[in-house]
Write a structure and sequence with these properties.
The protein is built from seven helices and two strands. The protein is mainly alpha-helical. The radius of gyration is 21 Å and the shape is globular.
C-alpha cells in the first residue's frame, strides 16, 4: 500500500482509495458526510457552539418554557446528553433553566437575551453553510434530500433499537 513515512516526509508516497465494498456501505458515506459537516461547521459557523447546542437553542426558541426532557427527543438527544448540553448553555448565559412550579425535578428552558442574539447569528451562518453544502444538487432536489436524510435517520434509529436484525430472504 505504499511505504511508511520517513523522517522529514510530510505526505505518503501513495494515496489509497477506499475499498469498493466500503464505498458501497451507507454507514461509510454517512460517517464521511458527518465528519465533513463537523469540519465545515467548525470553520464556517462556530468553533465553540456545537451542532447539538444550536439544536437545543433552536428548540427552546420554538418551544419556550418547555421542559428539558420533552425537548430532548425533538433535537435527537438522549436525556443525559441533553442535560449536559443545557448545563453548558446555561453556564454561557445563553439559556435559563428554572424549576417547574409543578415538579421541581423538571427544568423549564428559556432563551436569554444573549442566547437569542447568539442564535440569530449562528442561524444566519448555518443557513449560508446549508446552501453551500447543497450546491452539488439541482435546486429543485434539495428539499427532497433533506426529507430523505430525515427519513433514513428515523429508520436507522429504529434499527438501532431492535434486538435483532431480520435475516435476508
Amino acid at each position: 500500500m505504499g511505504e511508511p513515512l520517513r523522517r522529514g516526509e510530510r505526505t505518503p508516497a501513495v494515496t489509497a482509495a477506499p475499498p469498493a465494498d466500503l464505498v458501497a456501505a451507507p454507514g461509510y458515506g454517512a460517517r464521511r458526510m458527518y465528519q465533513a459537516y463537523l469540519a465545515a461547521w467548525n470553520r464556517h459557523v462556530d468553533a465553540v457552539l456545537t451542532g447539538p447546542q444550536f439544536a437545543v437553542l433552536s428548540a427552546v426558541r420554538a418551544y419556550p418554557d418547555s421542559d428539558q426532557g420533552s425537548l430532548a427527543g425533538a433535537v435527537a438527544l438522549d436525556t443525559s446528553t441533553m442535560a449536559d448540553v443545557c448545563r453548558r448553555l446555561e453556564r454561557r448565559g445563553l439559556i435559563r433553566r428554572t424549576e417547574s412550579p409543578r415538579d421541581a425535578r423538571r427544568k423549564l428552558l428559556s432563551l436569554t437575551k444573549d442566547g437569542g442574539a447568539a442564535l440569530a447569528e449562528v442561524t444566519r451562518r448555518t443557513r449560508r453553510l446549508d446552501q453551500e453544502l447543497l450546491t452539488a444538487l439541482p435546486e429543485d432536489r434539495r428539499h427532497d434530500l433533506a426529507a430523505l436524510l430525515n427519513t433514513l435517520g428515523t429508520h436507522w434509529e429504529s434499527i438501532a433499537e431492535r434486538n435483532h436484525l431480520t435475516d435476508p430472504a
